[in-house]
Amino acid sequence: LVNQVDYDSTDRAIRKALNETFLEVNEKGDPSNFFLGGCTASVTLRWGPRLYVANTGDSETIVVSAFPPQNMQQQEMRRKERRSELWTAKVEYNTRRDKANQPDERARIEKLGGKIHINAKGFDPRVILHSEAAHDTIGLAMSRSIGDWEWKAVGVTAEPTIDVIDLSKPPLPDSDKTIFLLAASDGFWDMRQKPFYASRMAASFRNDDKDNWNSREKDASL
After folding, report:
1. What digits encode the pLDDT tens for the residues 143-165?
2. Residue, of 204 and 85, whose pLDDT is higher
3. Distance (Å) of CA 166 to CA 3, 8, 95, 191, 194
4. What is the pLDDT at residue 71?
5. Which of 56, 67, 79, 96 has its CB 3.0 to 4.6 Å from that of 144, i.e. a possible disulfide?
6. Cα(41)–Cα(144) distance, rounded to whole angstroms?
7. How far apart are the C-alpha atoms of 207 and 16, rounded to whole Å?
């Protein structure tokens, strides 16, 4: 977490509501879909200065802080070069990927009789189960998901992990700082590192019209 939060009654109520929503969506799904498959979910709720981030599966949400160029020389470069390279962006927080090789996830699944396979290189953990619906043995890539009903018996849960981020406390607050979040599936994150996406998305907050207006105003004053 960016900041350790002391939970109050509002925090507890919101966390409870998010948790129950994930479980309800899982329970009330269409059997034709949820017996044969499932999905991840990454949800962020902003309530006042706080973000409540609920995540199930291997999709991820990141929170990024970004600074624009700080001096006139950088401002000029920004108009001539690729703007994404001139922003300073930092990933302040990211959700975890729910995988069966994580100690707490593995303990829960194995306690309920689930079998976990990890390849020879120690990657790609999967929860192995013979699916009666699909008539096949399948390895589920996640330790948490919505749907995948057959895997619920062996510890794959729809219950999300929920974190609380207070945007009003350091290190996030700063008058020149832009704060944004980005949520995407594993296929997106597998292509590039998070700082790569952070810097390029940060550049989208540049206001070209404002820059051009300020430049014209300065020229007129001269």
Report:
1. 999 999 999 999 999 999 999 99
2. 204
3. 7, 13, 15, 30, 21
4. 56
5. 56
6. 10
7. 39
Could you tell me the CA-to-CA distances from 126 to 22, 97, 147, 174 in Å, in that order?
22, 13, 16, 42
Element (H, E) at 11: helix 9-27
3-state helix, strand, coil in the chain (%, to 5): 35, 30, 35
pTM: 0.80
Residue 62 DSSP SS3:
strand
Note whether 166 and 50 are within 8 A (CB).
yes
Residue whose structure tokens are 């096949």 = 136
Query: For residue 95, which of 148, 26, 21, 163 has the smallest C-alpha distance?
Result: 163
**What are 165-205's pLDDT values in tens digits?**
988 887 777 767 788 999 999 999 999 999 999 988 887 77
pLDDT score of 34 more than 50: yes
* Pair 13, 19: CB distance under 8 Å: no
Give CA 141 to chain center in angstroms.
Answer: 17
Rounded to whole angstroms, how far apart are CA atoms 79 and 75?
Answer: 7
Angle at 148 between CA 152 and CA 122, to 5 degrees: 80
Cross-strand pairs, 43: 54
For residues 179 and 167, what is the distance between their CA atoms, to the nearest angstrom? 9
CA distance 186 to 169: 30
